[in-house]
């Protein structure tokens, strides 16, 4: 059992008595409208109630009705001050009045109860429960004191106000707590989505880095082999040149060693068996289309004559092109079962251009149950959709355009820059470290 210590009780009392202990509600148009209509209802009904049932003069009923309606408007800006004003107005109304019949409640008239409950409910949306308990006890104490001034305490007269003034604020507090929890959940979900997007981006960048390692390591291996074999291929090579080639080969081998260490870090969570698999390029696109067919996708590939031979296109560009097409096909299998896809590869002197267009789901015939992502035999995984596509295209300083079509299909178009023709004279066959 928890013991309530005096300092805690005193602190709660100070908090309940303070006029700045409760933050006001958001000053929205809806809140102003609801409270204004409520105040108007209390004013009109309060005047009629006092004039007809408590034998109060028209002037006195008007003053009392206004005094009990004003706190309802004030609770939008200063809830604690509105409560004490409402309680004072209710006590001032009860003290001089006398019901005309025994059926009329006293000391609290119906409209006084309405005013007090509305203000207390507004406070319940912002104040802690301990403050509500103090205010509720103050209300009961005020009613008890008023009854003692005229007759013995009648529990039947105090019970309705006690129950109503407890249930209404507790209900309001429950609604406010639910709204606060929902707002926190929304914030947590937004943070979670942002963290997930960030983690997805980092995972995709790591995946791209693993693949590019194979491309760079291939070129480093070529440099090492050429530097090592230069003294045997070139006749009458000066001793200084032989030494220079040896230094180049040694540095290349050290670079390869460091790259393998980096690759080991990048692939700690990846498939170890795929570490030495060659990276795919444009030559493997027909195999990829055949894999798409086996996954239940009606896919067609068109490579125009303007596309250079694979050995004339940098390996990094080939790899990115292959992954873009592969991810596009996987997305169609996942999100548009039964659609047909057309893959077009074109090129000019400055860029390689890819277009993947799929029809609406089921447009190619009977809808097909998706069988999973389109994968080849290499270490591709499923990628991260458009995030991975954007990362690959941005890495090559290219352009990516995606969007839905009017017929319900989807289009992915990418432009991957190509280096000048004289910059691709060296062999660029994909390989692994």
> What integer value in Å does the Rg equal?
40 Å
Strand tally: 5
Compressed to H and E, one letter per element, the order equals HHHHHHHHHEHEEHEE
Report how far the terminal alpha carbons are from each other: 69 Å
Classify the secondary structure makeup into a structural class.
alpha+beta
Overall tally of domains? 3
What's the number of helices?
A: 11
Mean of pLDDT: 80
Instruction: Work out the helicity level.
Output: 55-70%
Unreliable stretches covering 5 or more consecutive residues: 366-383, 424-433
Strand proportion, as a percent range, falls in 5-15%
- Within the largest sheet, what's the order of strands? 1-2-3-5-4
Major β-sheet profile: 5 strands, mixed
Tell the overall outline.
elongated
Short description:
The chain is built from 11 helices and 5 strands; from the N terminus they run αααααααααβαββαββ. With about 425 residues, it is of the alpha+beta class. A hairpin with a 3-residue loop joins β2 (about 340-345) and β3.
Description of the molecule:
The chain has a five-stranded mixed beta sheet, covered by helices on one side. The chain is elongated and about 125 Å long. The chain is of the alpha+beta class and 433 residues long. The protein has eleven helices and five strands. The protein starts with 5 loop residues before the first helix and ends in a 16-residue tail after the last strand. Helix 2 (29-53) packs antiparallel against helix 5, helix 3 runs parallel beside helix 5 and helix 7 (155-233) runs antiparallel to helix 8 (239-266). It has three domains: 6-153, no CATH class; 203-274; 282-424, Heat Shock Protein 90, CATH 3.30.565.10. The chain has helices at 6-17, 29-53, 58-74, 79-94, 110-124, 129-148, 155-233, 239-266, 285-294, 315-335, 386-395, and strands spanning 298-303, 340-347, 351-358, 399-404, 410-417. Helices cover 58% and strands 8% of the residues. Strand 1, helix 10 (315-335) and strand 2 (340-347) form a beta-alpha-beta unit.
